[in-house]
Amino acid sequence: MSLFAQQLVLGLLLGGVYVAVGIGFSLVWGVLNIVNLAHGALVMLGAYLTWWLFTNAGMDPFVSLPIDAVALFAIGYLVQRILINRVIRAPLFFTLLLTFGVNLIAVNLILLFFTSDFRAVAPGYAGSGMTVGDVEVPYIRLGAFGVALLLAAAIGLLMNRTRVGLAIRAVGADRDAAQLVGIDLRHVYALTFGVGAAAAGVAGGLIGTIYSITPTAGDPFTLQAFVVVILGGLGRVSATVVGGMVFGLIEVLAQTQIPQGAGWANAIAFAVLVLVLVLRPQGIMGRTA
Amino acid sequence: MTGFRRRLLLIALLVVMSIVLVLPATLTPLAADAGLDPESLGVDFLVNKSILRMETTIAMFIVLATAWNLIGGLTGYAAFGNVAFFGLGAYTVGMLTDPERGNLPFAVALPLAPLVPAAFAALVGLPLLRLRGHYFAIATLGMGVAIGEVIKNIDLFGGSTGLFPPIFRRADWLFFYLMAGAATLAVATNWLVLRSRFGYGLIAIRENEEAAAVIGVNTTLHKVAAFVLAAALTGLAGGIFAQWNSFINQENVFPIEYNVEMILMAIAGGAGTLFGPLAGAIVLESLILWLAGMGGEVAVISQIGLGLILAVTIIFVPRGVVDFFGGQSTLSLAHIRRSLRETSV
Amino acid sequence: MPLLELESVSKRFGGVKALRRVSFSIEEGEILGIIGPNGAGKTTLLNCISGVHRVDEGRINFDGRRINGEPPHMVARLGIGRTFQIVKPFSSMTVRENAAIGALFGSSQARMAPVAAFAWADEVLSLVGLASRAAFPVASLTIPDRKRLELARALATKPRLLLLDEVMSGLNAVESDQALDVVRRIHQSGITIVLIEHVMRVVAGVCERIVVLNFGEVLTEGRTQEVLDDSRVVEAYLGEKYARRLRQARGERDQDR
After folding, report:
1. Which end of chain C has less neighbouring CB within 10 Å, N or C?
2. In chain A, which stretches have pLDDT less than 50?
């Protein structure tokens, strides 16, 4: 029983990470209709930035998260403005291929600068945690969980309460109509992608403190982000939160059922994906057609 | 393009292909008999081993891009996981020829290489092909990654070490001809499909699936059949590759880049056309191989180069060198400018 | 035996009842109009017949055979052709290719080899008046021509029954007269037709019998003139107030009944 409770807690904490990974992906997909295959690479950029600041400036990983967000926002804004905006109205093959190209470039630039060595961020409190009953809760994972929920709340507020957020949602609903009321599409597209990238950067900062990282570790996160969004249902922040939590639970529970379960992350993600798409294509939180 | 010009192009292509295919085999012994050095004849590119390997690789990508064309170009389903079929074909040959497993001769194993991926495609095709657009794209992408991971994790399939089909010595010719044969088969399949009722059905699905259904196209059957055909051809290339390389593991037969490279080749050359994927494969794979040579030890540089090629191709030639999904061949500045205007905001 | 027969067909979308116990039938060689205000369920009905939607309750018989539950391509193969209100052409193809696809597949009478299919496509195109545009890409067609193409493609499948979904909508008076002419010619060639329309004038000019749908139910059914005189029909279209005024204007004729 206590083992199960432990897994439940670990699953939810992992789910927090998936919420962070999924939220930017969901935003970009929902508004721009782009499935961003470079999302995992953006996550890794955030992770390496946190690692670099920790190693060279001794900065606490949680303190460096806002820096990740700002840096990745800038990168995301430029990528969309310079590259993706040019093919945004082309058939979906083109945006998929272009973001894959961006992914390839980003991953290999990281390889060039940081080499393929494993890197880890280990602040003093790494490894310690608190015990609640029989259940152990590592501080870092708890912190990451809290940050992920804060991130979700912040993006929710941004989308519902601010001028920029309303412009983004208007563009997502109908870009022609949005243009007619005076919204600059190019700018709003770039802003949206920038916000999505910033969220990816924060997710990367969290991941850098939890796992050891390599430049090519990003690709599974793209698939996982996709599964989280499908699982929850496209379009709303709350749906991504539910999707991320459920996926975290599924992964932890599934891995304990399989010997050497850690090597099966992609297979589990794919199995969940196919099941959801076949059984409930609109996602857990999606409305029926 | 008029019928006459099309026929002319076809004949020219056949002539070039027969020269490339037939000449080297006859030339080598002839030249040896006559005491001539192929290098002094200026035809060393035909008998140079490393160039032969490059040509085999290009032929392999012709198979992949042309096979993808059936499901992606003709049917309009963005299949991003065809590498799963390549890997399954390779592992079929790997398992059957491995001395400790099947221990069968390559000639027996190869015909089975298309069957396993085809059966797999039929199985997963039924649920997956109900999805459209991005959903289908990522579901297939996940399929490619997941199959590789499963195989890597199961010791029966050699685990992360991989499999080692027995090495064929001095057989570079054999593999070149096999791969060229597979490429010819793939192009021939496309040709047959394009002029059959089946092919029209696929195009109708691409253009408007609902309208296709109400005029009597069995859309499910058509889509699954196209997927299975693509899987069989891709698996054949994988099977040849396994024996050619005489070493396979998850990394070299399930590379996620192949998914994207084959699509890029088909689109750059003209998705949905007969020779577009072939032309795209020749041009882009030559470019990729050249870049890989440039990078030397630093594979990273060539990967960045590939990413740049991808980005530039996608942005500046959104309609393909041959117009996207059939139509006129255009590669003029005005055309590029116009299509840029159409696709950007 | 009627060619097409609907027995209390119902269809729900979530909580909305789009069709409620709809029944009617059509004899071979007839031309039947189905009219009703926007949202009455006309297109849903058509989607149910052609297999695009699954019926929740009831039964649809075609030529004595139950067809509800069959996928759309089977319905087409049995000999029911249809058009879409919002045209769905195969847009990267030429006009001729669009029609030929109908003949390559279509009903069991069609399903021709490619060469024969293209020849039949040309015949069909001249019937609807698109022969001169056969070689053009669809993108170059005007709206009325796209409607004709929709008609040609359905016709190319050699149907016994043709379901036409608002083929006149969006056309001006001259264009819709021309389209009506085409419909008459198709009917004369021996094809049974169900004509769905929003505009009553169009239906009155060509149909022998009319079914009126309102809120997913059959409001009334009968010979064209009877139906047009029915005050309930006017009410459904124009509201109660207008119907009352019309009744007063007609005065005595109304009281006689």
Report:
1. C
2. 288-289
Contact yes or no for B303 and A90 at CB 8 A = no
End-to-end CA separation in angstroms for chain B: 32
Q: Which of C102, C4, C1, C105 has the alpha carbon at shortest distance from C45?
A: C4
CA distances from A63 to A98, A209, B222, C170, C224 (A): 33, 12, 55, 62, 79
With helix as H, strand as E and coil as C, how does chain C read? CCCEEEEEEEEEECCEEEEEEEEEEECCCCEEEEECCCCCCHHHHHHHHCCCCCCCEEEEEECCEECCCCCHHHHHHHCEEECCCCCCCCCCCEHHHHHHHHHHCCCCCCCCCHHHHHHHHHHHHHHHCCHHHCCCEHHHCCHHHHHHHHHHHHHHCCCCEEEEECCCCCCCHHHHHHHHHHHHHHHHCCCEEEEEECCHHHHHHHCCEEEEEECCEEEEEEEHHHHHHCHHHHHHHHCHHHHHHHHHHHCHHHHHC
Return the pLDDT at C254: 46
Residue A74 pLDDT: 97
Closest-CA distance of chain B to residue A202, Å: 24
Query: How many whole angstroms separate alpha carbon B67 and alpha carbon B100?
Result: 32
What pTM did the predictor assign? 0.84
| Amino acid residing at B257 | E
Q: Which residues pair with A160 in a beta bridge?
A: none
Chains near C (3 or more Cβ pairs under 8 Å): B
Nearest CA to A192 out of A178, A177, A211, A213 is that of: A178
With pLDDT > 70 as the criterion, what percentage of chain B qualifies?
79
Quickly state the pLDDT bin for B319 (edges 50, 70, 90): low
Q: Provide the pLDDT for residue A96.
A: 86
pLDDT at res. B26: 55
- The answer for A 4-63 residues in CB contact with B (under 8 A) is 29, 33, 35
Interface ipTM above 0.95 = no
**What integer pLDDT is reported at residue C172 of this predicted model?**
86
Q: Determine the average pLDDT of the residues in C29-37.
A: 91
Smallest CA–CA distance from B197 into chain C, residue: C104
3-state secondary structure of A130: strand
A253 touches chain B (CB under 8 A): no
Whether residue A93 and residue B72 make contact (CB cut-off 8 A), yes or no, is yes
pLDDT at residue B327, as a whole number: 47
pLDDT in the model for residue B324: 47
- In this complex, the residue of B197, B208, B218 whose CB is nearest that of residue C73 is B218
Q: How many angstroms separate the CA atoms of B115 and B113, rounded?
A: 6
Is it the case that residue C26 has pLDDT exceeding 90? yes
Whether the per-residue pLDDT at C76 is higher than 60: the answer is yes
B342 reaches C (C-beta below 8 A) = no
A93·B307 Cβ contact <8 A: no
pLDDT at res. A13: 93
Residues 6+ apart with CB under 8 A from B327: C92
**Nearest CA of chain C to the CA of B266: how many Å?**
18
Chain A residue numbers touching B306 (CB-CB < 8 A): 101, 104
* Length of chain A measured in residues: 289
- Touching subunits of A (3+ CB pairs, under 8 Å) are B
Distance between CA A127 and CA C164 in Å, rounded?
Answer: 71
